[in-house]
């Protein structure tokens, strides 16, 4: 479902955020992309979702070449960005309908599809509200709905539960699992929460300063460590909440570079 080779990104101005990422994700997997703040998670995801042109490397996403055919990739993927899609002042169903029609759906089938997606996410009855009248957890589930309206086979979630209370987080995890179990959806999510990675992902890639430094199932990554937290600390030299040193200064002097895969 995703295969990348040597994917990298240097921003104009010279910041290299991603330095040669190789990933492979199978259909039906939930894969976690884990790393400290500033590690390059969002940049990688923005490349994979066609929002940012890679500086180098190749990738196939949902069966299409990312660089040669980004439009085909876009039709087959859903993307829930870190900031979300729900606007505060507009009834969510109006934005959802617009969103579906931008994907080329006609109004009647779009309404039907939206109804089904909202039912699936436990949101039926809330769709007339503007974003400002929703709880954080409800808003995040509506963000998922935006990502699912056009029936993608691959869903990208960027930090899906940041800022949510524990109950809403667990609720969102349940919905993501359900989408995989019942629809065979493939999910690629970034997170800096180790409990989220542990609870949700079948497989993890750990990125640190633009480089993949470890990969495996949560159990494999834990290895001899008592917890994923301890393993993460051993791999990256950081606690999960900590930010990585900025990419601008990560040229080489770091003492934490030892944990290459
Ligand atoms: N548009 C941009 N221009 C310049 N630097 C950027 C831009 N976007 C992100 N960066 C830098 O790239 C690095 C990785 O950022 P990001 O991918 O957002 O990390 P993460 O999502 O893992 O927290 C950071 O050092 C960040 O400051
Ligand atoms: Mg990010």
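Q: What amino acid sequence fits the structure above?
A:
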């Amino acid at each position: 479902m995703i295969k990348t080779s040597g994917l990298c990104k240097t921003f104009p101005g010279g910041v290299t955020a991603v330095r040669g990422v190789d990933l492979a994700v199978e259909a039906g997997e939930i894969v976690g992309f884990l790393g400290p703040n500033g590690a390059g998670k969002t940049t990688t995801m923005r490349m994979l979702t066609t929002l940012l042109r890679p500086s180098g490397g190749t990738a196939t996403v949902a069966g299409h070449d990312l660089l040669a055919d980004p439009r085909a990739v876009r039709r087959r993927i859903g993307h829930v960005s870190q900031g979300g899609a729900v606007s505060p002042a507009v009834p969510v169903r109006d934005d959802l309908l617009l969103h579906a029609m931008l994907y080329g759906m006609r109004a009647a089938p779009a309404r039907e599809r939206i109804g089904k997606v909202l039912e699936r996410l436990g949101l039926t009855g809330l769709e007339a509200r503007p974003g400002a009248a929703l709880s954080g957890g409800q808003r995040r589930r509506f963000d998922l709905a935006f990502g699912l309206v056009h029936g993608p086979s691959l869903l990208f979630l960027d930090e899906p539960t940041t800022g949510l209370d524990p109950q809403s987080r667990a609720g969102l995890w349940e919905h993501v699992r359900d989408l995989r179990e019942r629809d065979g959806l493939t999910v690629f999510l970034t997170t800096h929460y180790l409990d989220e990675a542990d609870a949700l992902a079948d497989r993890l890639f750990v990125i640190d300063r633009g480089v993949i430094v470890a990969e495996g199932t949560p159990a494999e990554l834990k290895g001899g460590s008592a917890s994923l937290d301890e393993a993460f600390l051993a791999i990256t030299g950081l606690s999960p909440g900590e930010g990585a040193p900025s990419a601008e200064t990560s040229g080489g002097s770091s003492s934490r570079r030892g944990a290459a895969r």
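Q: And what stands out in the fold?
A: Residues 41-42, 82, 158-159 surround magnesium ion (ligand 2) (CB under 6 Å).
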